[in-house]
Amino acid sequence: MAWSYSRYFANTTFTAEDAKVVKIQHQEPFPDLLNVLDDFWPSRIDGNGKPILGTGPYRVVDFQRQDDIGSATLELVDPAQHPAWSRKIVATAARSGEERLKLLQSGQVDAALNLERIDDLNLLDFRSSLRWGRVSSTLSVIYYLNCPEGVFSSPQVRLAANLAIDNQALVDEVYLGLATPAATVVSPHHLGFKEANLSPIPYDPKRAKELIKHLDLSKPLRLRTPEWMPEHAIKITEFVKRSLEAIRFKVDVEVETNRPEYARSIGLRKNIGDLACFDSTPNTTFRVLDDKVSSESHGTWWLGYHDDEFQRLFAKARIAAKGDDRNKAYAEALKRVHENPPWLYIAHPDVIWATKPGVKLSIGPSGVLELGK
Question: At the top level of its lineage, which domain of life is listed (predicted)?
């Protein structure tokens, strides 16, 4: 798939002013440029033109793979700058959250990450024998709705689908409370969300039924889902299926076991059926709206939504330069996609990790790990 950032820099010139300064020139005002740059991490290039693993304080000095399990050794580049940090870190892949937790509980590792991906969340007992961490994430679990054709080409039917979902009940049942119900296309951490002052679309199956009473419901909805990414996709889909059936839809579920192929079928071929389970990961409100919602750019992850009022509000937000003005402008755009949703909004899962007592690390909402905190 085409690199999603390329179009942002089509009219941009990058110049190395000196060893530490890069000058960026854009042909027109682009207030969100720095936020776009913050969404990816370029690697240093060695003399042979190859990327150097470990662009931050640590450098990968060894990588081994045994029995299809990778293990990387990282060394601190400048110990004098970070005297309290470990000189060496060994990072080992463990595919299941259950396995990662067992390795920590048995003392074989010092930290276990991404424990929110454990199939059985009851295993997260948060006992005091370990040091636990938990933070709400910027990730959004959603269902793309087929806006160009079928029943979800109607704004009122898209709204009805959202009214049919009891988001808090879903969070309690599927995530055991370890998530935040979604209210719009971005998380509470995103620009403009606070100013929008939004709550999740209220659970109202009676109104949902009223909005779709004119439809011929004899043909089942085609619901597509992967097994993972988002985690717990099957359980979420089971909840959504029951909820839509409760307002008299019929629902046929298709499970795709090949996750990369699933992404290609959604992004490239727009094969979403009537609705498709997915996750939204950009950390900037601009990128979510520009890549996935705006009908102007027709980005890879745009699935046919168009709303004149949203386009007007987004055009205003993307040129707002001052902080307060940008926050308020993006808030108005977020309110509009709450009123006329392009997607079925689900939740923002928590990020969960655990360490041995005395090991200090933290993970931010976007998943960036920091040592010493």
Answer: Eukaryota
Residue pair 44/51 in contact by the 8 Å Cβ criterion: yes
For residues 127 and 290, which has the higher predicted lDDT (pLDDT)? 290
Angle between the N-to-C axes of helices 323-339 and 308-317, in degrees from 0 to 180, rounded to the nearest 10: 160
336 CB neighbour count, 10 Å cutoff? 20
Cα separation of 233 and 225, whole Å? 7
DSSP 175-208: STT-EEE--SSS-TTSTTHHHHT--PPP--HHHH
Q: What is the pLDDT of residues 241-255, one digit of tens each?
A: 999 999 999 999 999
Distance CA(90)–CA(249), nearest Å, equals 51
Amino acid 54: pLDDT: 63
d(CA 50, CA 113): 29
**Domain residue spans of the chain:** 140-349
**Which is it for strands 140-145 and 275-280: parallel, antiparallel or unpaired?**
antiparallel
What's the mean per-residue pLDDT of the chain?
92
Q: Which two tokens stand for residue 270?
A: 């727009």
Query: 3-state SS string over 73-124?
Result: EEEECCCCCCCCCCCEEEEECCCCHHHHHHHHHCCCCCEECCHHHCCCHHHC
